[in-house]
Amino acid sequence: MLLEAAGIKKIFGKLTALDGAALSVGENEFHGLIGPNGSGKSTLMKCIAGAEVPTQGTVSFVNTDITAYTPTERARAGMSLKFQITSVLPSLTLYDNILLALQAQSSLFDLVFSRTRGALHDQVMTMLRQFRLADRAFEAAAALSHGQQQWLEIAMALAGKPKLLLLDEPTGGMSLEERRVTGELLQPIKQHCSLVIVEHDLDFIRDICDRLTVLDQGRVLASGTVPEIQANPSVQEIYLRRA
Amino acid sequence: MANAFVAAFEILSFGAIIVLIVLGLGIIASMMGIFNFAQGEFVLLGAYITYLAYAKGMPIWAGMVAAPFVVGALGFALEALIIRRFYAAPIVAMLGTYALGLIIRESVRGLIGGFYLTVPEPIGGSIDIGAMHISAWRFTIIVITLLVMAGCYLLLSRTSFGLRMRATLENPSLARASGISTPLMYGATFAFGSALAGLAGALIVPVFSLYADLGLRFLIQGFVAVMVGGVGSFIGPVAGAGVIGTLSAALPWIMAPVVADVLVFVLAIVFIKFRPQGLIAGKGV
Amino acid sequence: PAPWANAAEAPIKVGIATDLTGPIAYAGNADANVAKMVIKEINAAGGLLGRPLELYIEDTASNESVAVGNVRKLIQRDKVDMVLGGITSSMRNAIKDPIVARGKTLYIYPQLYEGKECTPYLFCTGPTPAQQCDEFIPWLIKNGGKKFALPSANYVWPHTLNVYARKVIEANGGEVVFEEYYPLDQVDFSATVNRIVSNKVDVVFNTVIPPGVGPFFKQLYEAGFLKNGGRLACVYYDENTLNINQAAEIEGLASCLDYFKVLTKENPFDAKIQAAYEKDFPGNFLFAAGSAATGTYRGLKLWEAAVKEAGKIDRESVAAALDHAKIAEGPGGPAEMVPGKRHCKMKMYTAVAKGGNYEIVARSSGLVDPKEC
Amino acid sequence: MPEFLDIKHLDAGYGRSQVLFDVTLGIPWRGGVAVLGRNGAGKTTLMKTIVGELPAWKGELAFDGRDISRRATQERVRAGIGYVPQEHSVFARLSVRDNLAVGSLASKKADAVDHVLTIFPKLGQRLDQPAGTLSGGERKMLAIGRAMLGDPKLLLLDEPTEGVWIGVIEEITERLIELARTIAVIIVEQHLDLALRVADYAYVLDRGRVALQGEAGQVRSNPELMRYLAP
Amino acid sequence: MLKPMSVVREAIATDMGDEADGAMAEGAAAGQAKDRVKAGRKILPIVEAVVLVAALLAPLVLQDYLTVFATRVIILALFALSFDLVWGYAGIMSFGQALFFGSAGYGVALLARDLDITNIFLVLPAGTLIGLAFALLLGGFLLLGRHPSSVIFVSLGTLTGSYAADRLARGWYYLGGQNGIPSIAPMSLGTYEFTEGPAFYYLVLGILVVVYLLCRFLVRSQFGLALAGLRENEQRIAFFGYKAQHLKAIIFTIGGAVAGLAGSLYAFHEGFVWPNMVGVVVSTQVVLYVLFGGSGTLIGAVIGAVIVEGVSFWLSDNYRDIWPIILGVLLLLVILFRPLGLISFVLGERERVGSFGAKAKENP
Ligand SMILES: Nc1ncnc2c1ncn2[C@@H]1O[C@H](COP(=O)(O)OP(=O)(O)OP(=O)(O)O)[C@@H](O)[C@H]1O
Ligand SMILES: Nc1ncnc2c1ncn2[C@@H]1O[C@H](COP(=O)(O)OP(=O)(O)OP(=O)(O)O)[C@@H](O)[C@H]1O
Ligand SMILES: [Mg+2]
Ligand SMILES: [Mg+2]
């Protein structure tokens, strides 16, 4: 397994947001994480990426226990996260946003002395072109619409060539067509990367994911392949239940 | 025993003075996100107005009552003319208010000729309990501080004015979209913070005498207090001020004052380092 | 103005560097005013060596870095023949090098200070610890008591002064109960006051400075120190500082300086300069000893005498003459330089605050020796 | 009779870059109107211009028969325009309770908050939590609830269901349909079906211009529509 | 299509203080910048060249005493540079930059006083090292650790450091207490002594140019870009895998070293050190230089130092009694109407930090 999160508990004050949740993702697997609002999906993603420290539980990545790692160390180990609330670097250009993401793992020496800019230029432009942002490469990221920022974030998350990509609602604010395109953009990375994706759009999830985990009230309700989950009665129940 | 009582009173009274000074600073810093370097000069203006009343032969308490209103009005005007442009850039705001403070301070210095001037207390003398003497005015300050604190708390937490204020300062565009007139709220908040500074100045001038650097003296202490208490709430800075004030008055009882002075700051910074959210994390009022 | 005998030669340039702005601007402005008055007077009397005097005033702004820049203007741009000024010791230290060493100019420092300044070409015309303590402390012991407390601001002047004062106190059978230093801007003195009261101190020999001194005296008063017969003493207290507290809070405070305004009642020359000053500068900036105004007057007059004697204006000649210059009349009486010491003998007065005014209670019999260098 | 909200030849944008070009639309006194378009088409910009977050560069903006193009946002809101922004739609450091209280500052109905809490029971469990720590979906619910509390006569919703769980979307849709019977609702929405269930009429924006408009059904079946929504 | 600027202003004015506003201001800036790019891009190098030429010629046209003044200004410009590096590029609000400046000054003053060491090749490296060491200690404490530190915390932390050092210097007799250390012997090279004047001026100018070029290289490297990112959103940068805190600590330390170098030059040029030099007054002063000139451009810091010092000098000459008030008013006006500093009169936002010359390649 590439990622093993087990027994994750996260308590905020009186609220138990995660109550022994678990997630395991294999190599080159696209894994969907679904569940009602407030079921703890984002919190689980944050615990995995290091943005939140779980009250209890362990996270291991490529067979190493990373529970105590900082976000930086996790990123360096090959994890990459797109937040639910977009967080691009607003006053930098799109170009610089991508460039920063691309060379995040370089050593200090390289950062200061080598001429990576020239070397990386084509990569940056390719990424931007893929996401249809190339013509705005030299505008500040703040000038993008909400949907465009989502794209930029996905591009940034991909740029670091992660082993595991964590996307928290990447298609929020996108139309059906745009979602489809996003799905297409994500397919090719399967060769070198696993994906955990949080989504509310079941059709989208069904199309791109191999396996699904369903969270409800901080617990794993079910986990399995897409057909298994669709057949699961308790999952069907929460889909009918009013929030 | 008597000694301990006097000590407690003195420490408490200095704590109250710091709280009084920090109240306005804290409201502006916490709620508006502006570290107002001119706050000390608002304190100075409050003191100066009180002095003017005294020098013109009016009753001192009249000056003390007028001070918060005059300084508040000035704050309102300054907000509309100057501070308003700074909200997006807190550091520029620090420098802008620094310049503002410099202007006010140097002007007042010119007006009072750079001297140290005395202003008598409206309630003078001391309360004698046996062999102990307790300054009547310091006691009054403690009482007023408590009242003002409670009043501010109620205003912010219980009234719709407070709610509007907090909403505006939290997310102005959304506040406007909720029908709140944000320019007015900004002005009002800043004026309120300034008025509190004016009041503080008016009340402390009999204790410390009037001089141009009166406000500046407390500024850094005030900022540190705000940080220790925690930015983002009303209670935080007040608690921080209480701690810093009592600590700076208490430490000289047990160690060399020169050491105590630096120690307070170092302790504060170390504390903030390990508890960045401050004594009271930024929620609630 | 008067026709100059040697008008063909360029005027003699006098430089004043003092705190025109900043926290002690009240003192600096008074000094600058005194200089204007003296220079006007000398010019009216025909100038020096037949040449007119020209005054150059620069601001030291209580900021050493600004001060050095401005003093360089005096030295390098205006090429003054002498610089008088600096009020605090740190200011003197900052500007003395550009004036004396790098600037090769004469420097007169007018303020009362801690002593120990023995730089060549630097002349001090204000009182020293010896002048302020030698007669004052015995008086305090007689009129206050034997138990002294030395609460002080933490900088060089109080430290050095206290060393001297302690010596005198102990030599006269007194006792120092405690000596304690506070940050310069400390404003809460509850711990100190408590210590003073509980130790039954007789005399508080204070070197706490503004802004702390106001609240300190007030807290002492409120704690009943004066009521129980305690005596305040503070050697920099002059007419300017009287207003920091209400009269009652400093009733009986004793100070020892080279001049008090009450002297105008008994001393016609003092009355004359005081009147001349107040006529020209009726504002807030008083002619007082604690702000170096008297030292400035004395310094300029001594320098005038020296230039007259030397007959030339170059540094060596003037310094040589200034070394033993004398004036028969000055604020508080005559003054004369102690040869080889570059410090000044003068008369000293002990005064006590009564109802917001000073009363002279003692005076030195003759000129007091600075005992420096 | 003029439309309730009447926009004619509107130009607007950010700084010097123009986003909306000659937009003309009319919103009736009651009923839903959908604004559709791909990412970056200018939907949010249009909403912001209507509430006054952005100044109109040119054109007319009349609400309830009065020109509002020079009025400040808060005045427009007090005149009866409610707004749910796409981003930053809650007061993050204020508690949920206070967020709702801000919404009901102008409202006269005493039980309004309770009403919102029955629609979104989830919020009831989170009343004392700072709104900034709510989950994405909870935040949207709060934003909608807050806007509803102001008793608007015209409600602007910028992607109200983004990140909201399907079960809740259904609930929201029902409420909006209900609302649209009594007041005017403008909805920007990526869920086409939802949008067109709420709306009787739809506008499609393309690069800042109105590209299509018509009855909801017509727009839905217009073969051009997909082209305008594809990236 | 273009709207007059007034509309833009209005947009900004009606929308103060929240993200949307920030975004809009950004938008406006980006718009301006685009025009600028079209109008002819590289303005920064021109400004730099002009300043350099002016600096080279200054002693030839200035009177002697003004050359001495100019030397001091150049030293202060070097000091300003150190602050711009830290604030303008990394967004670390060092309100205590004087700590490094002054401690280096004290350090070399002690070397000269107690050990008679004045050799330029010893004292300048020593001063630099002292600045570096202090910055490493303070920066390590403030910037590293489990919680990322907020701008306000760092600014107050550095302010406190500076304040405490000032207190310490005042109270410590060995350092001369309040009076500082006067009459420092001149810096020497063999038997040659650097006394104030043109030689000292060109020495300092040379040092400034070298340090400037080094800084310029540094901030235009990818390292500089990472700093720009940091300033925007430290957490985001950390999630990319940058060791954000280390980068900050490094630039902070470099800033400290430059400040130390400036401080040691200052001590020798002025001939004395005093507690203010480590204190809050000088710390605030350097912030003013940089804000006045324009942060995040390097050259803005230099220009700011020159103008603030020059103007104060002139004002204190011509308005002796009220010059602090006038200075305050001028400052306020600049901050109000040119929040990006005087440099923004000639320089578009895009030539500031975080924009790098790659666009030439893209647009053929
Ligand atoms: N910092 C916090 N303090 C208190 N409660 C929190 C905090 N962060 C999250 N919560 C609560 O924890 C629960 C889980 O939140 P989380 O963001 O993980 O939900 P989610 O599954 O991502 O929901 P959504 O689909 O709406 O985004 C929510 O009820 C939320 O209110
Ligand atoms: N602050 C800004 N400054 C400059 N341009 C901006 C700004 N915000 C948005 N834009 C531009 O304006 C255009 C319209 O943006 P808008 O946000 O209105 O799109 P939208 O239709 O709401 O898209 P989405 O579905 O992605 O939210 C986009 O091209 C965007 O890049
Ligand atoms: Mg979520
Ligand atoms: Mg949008």
TrEMBL record, chain A:
Record's keyword terms, sorted: ATP-binding, Nucleotide-binding, Transport
Chain's role: Involved in beta-(1-->2)glucan export. Transmembrane domains (TMD) form a pore in the inner membrane and the ATP-binding domain (NBD) is responsible for energy generation.
GO cellular component terms, semicolon-separated: plasma membrane
Domain ABC transporter: 3-242
One Pfam family cited in the UniProt record for this chain: ABC_tran
Residues spanning the signal sequence: none
GO-annotated molecular function: ATP binding; ATP hydrolysis activity
Protein name: ABC transporter ATP-binding protein
Species, as recorded: Bradyrhizobium frederickii
InterPro entries, sorted: AAA+_ATPase (IPR003593), ABC_AA/LPS_Transport (IPR051120), ABC_transporter-like_ATP-bd (IPR003439), P-loop_NTPase (IPR027417)
Coiled coil: none
From TrEMBL, chain B:
Subcellular location: Cell membrane
InterPro entries: ABC_transp_permease (IPR001851), BCAA_transport_permease (IPR052157)
Location, primary (coarse class): membrane
GO MF assignments: transmembrane transporter activity
Pfam families assigned: BPD_transp_2 (PF02653)
GO biological process, one term: amino acid transport
Sorted UniProt keywords: Amino-acid transport, Cell membrane, Membrane, Transmembrane, Transmembrane helix, Transport
Membrane-related topology note: Multi-pass membrane protein
Residue stretches spanning the membrane: 6-27, 34-54, 60-78, 85-104, 136-156, 184-212, 218-244, 251-272
CDD domains membership: TM_PBP1_LivH_like (cd06582)
This protein's GO CC annotations: plasma membrane
Domain of life assignment: Bacteria
Family: Belongs to the binding-protein-dependent transport system permease family. LivHM subfamily.
Protein name according to UniProt: Branched-chain amino acid ABC transporter permease
Organism: Bradyrhizobium frederickii
Organism lineage: Bacteria, Pseudomonadati, Pseudomonadota, Alphaproteobacteria, Hyphomicrobiales
Automatic annotation (TrEMBL), chain D:
Coiled coil: none
Keyword Transport part of the UniProt annotation: yes
Superkingdom of the source species: Bacteria
Entry keywords, A to Z: Amino-acid transport, ATP-binding, Nucleotide-binding, Transport
An annotated GO BP: L-amino acid transport
Domain ABC transporter: 5-229
PROSITE patterns: ABC_TRANSPORTER_1 (PS00211), ABC_TRANSPORTER_2 (PS50893)
Record-linked Pfam families: ABC_tran (PF00005)
GO-annotated molecular function: ATP binding; ATP hydrolysis activity; branched-chain amino acid transmembrane transporter activity
Function: Involved in beta-(1-->2)glucan export. Transmembrane domains (TMD) form a pore in the inner membrane and the ATP-binding domain (NBD) is responsible for energy generation.
Matches recorded under PANTHER family: HIGH-AFFINITY BRANCHED-CHAIN AMINO ACID TRANSPORT ATP-BINDING PROTEIN LIVF
Family in the record: Belongs to the ABC transporter superfamily.
Protein name: ABC transporter ATP-binding protein
Species of the source: Bradyrhizobium frederickii
From TrEMBL, chain E:
UniProt key word Transmembrane helix: yes
GO terms of molecular function: branched-chain amino acid transmembrane transporter activity
InterPro entries reported for this sequence: ABC_transp_permease (IPR001851), LivM-like (IPR043428)
Keyword line: Cell membrane, Membrane, Transmembrane, Transmembrane helix
Location, primary (coarse class): membrane
Intracellular or extracellular location(s): Cell membrane
Regions that span the bilayer: 43-62, 95-112, 119-144, 199-219, 249-268, 322-347
Annotated GO CC locations: plasma membrane
Membrane topology summary: Multi-pass membrane protein
Amino-acid biosynthesis among keywords: no
Domain of life the protein comes from: Bacteria
Protein name listed in UniProt: Branched-chain amino acid ABC transporter permease
Organism name: Bradyrhizobium frederickii
